[in-house]
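Why do we bother with holo predictions? Because pocket geometry can differ from the apo form. Keep that in mind while you read this record for 7TS.
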Amino acid sequence: MFPVEKIREDFPILKREVNGKPLVYFDNAATSQTPQVVIDAIVNYYTNYNANIHRGVHTLSQEATDLYEEARIKIQQHFNAKNAYEIILTSGTTDSINMVASGFEALLTSGDEIIVSALEHHSNIVPWQMLCEKTGAVLKVIPMLENGTLDMSVYNTLISEKTKLVFCNHVSNALGIINPIKEMIAKAHQVGAAVLIDGAQATPHIKPDVQELDVDFYVASAHKICGPTGVGILYGKSEWLEKLPPYQGGGEMIETVTFEKTTYAGLPHKFEAGTPNICGGIAFGVALDYMNAIGFDAIGAYEHELLIYGTEKLQEIEGLTIYGTEDKTAVISFNIEGIHPYDIGAILDKLGVAVRTGHHCAQPIMNFYNIPGTVRASFSFYNTKEEIDLLVNAVQKAKMMLS
Ligand code: 7TS
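The structure, written out:
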């Protein structure tokens, strides 16, 4: 039995009330909640270790540097990167994607092709459009099918000698669909294209092995994996990170500076200009330790139970449509016929149930289904079936009030 009641004790926020009702937090795909060990790590850092890193001879600076670099090693081990210097600490997924997009400006020429999927979050669309505008490269889109999966037969025809880059999320944020990334990576490598996988939505549920996937770049945000906001990673194979020029200039990323010429530091520092989110990086390492102690296999299996239970219960509501029905993580994106998703979300909030409503920064998916948005309930390993019952009751109440 998954020890959910014991786990819930680790999350102080789960004890609070919202609008006089116990909080039911089902907006985990937007950000996860924070366990006490991570909160303690943040307090401990500012209480005992606060100093700038990589630059002081004094004890505090050395201790803070050691903690930060230990976190990098924890992250390396979690993702099974070959080397710790292949882990660049960034401010989050968006930052990581922009870093790669900006680097490829120097490597692309007019007529090169970039492939993205129709299931992307805006942060994995807009930077590539900006890159295409600057370089003359052409953006090609893998279309989606009615069940929320990608049309892989079209992907196979889009890939060609002109393809230089492929970008896809591991898991779709709006629907929860798990994409066949291993197959996509292998296919792209046949023509020498690099692949960036956006793991923002996969990493809370799945432990990715970047060497086994043979992926070139993998990005994620700590705040979706029980860590704090403002920190994330860019994993890159060292041969690609060596090829890309630095993203930002500044302190920490240089080897020597004169007014005539600057030489850059080696990896990972070349991509880490300025004072980083030191506390955030350390707390991210603690969050990964916390989740690994529970175990991603156990987390995945329990969340799958929640997904099946929630899907069955919600489907009993007449007029309710669920979008994305294939292999997926614990996300249920739905609408009720004739009712705007925002109105459902507002009533759910009054009843203490937190969901996200709208286009979820994935407007192309909403356009595909010809809807303004969805109500998205996204579950985590600290949620329960009793909470799902509260959601279902609240949705029924909202439906009654609004129809
Ligand atoms: N990529 C995917 C697949 C995402 O789901 C998100 C955030 C991002 C990138 C951006 O991550 P950030 O940490 O840089 O902001 N997704 C969501 C969401 O679904 N609801 O709120 C944020």
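The mean pLDDT is 96.
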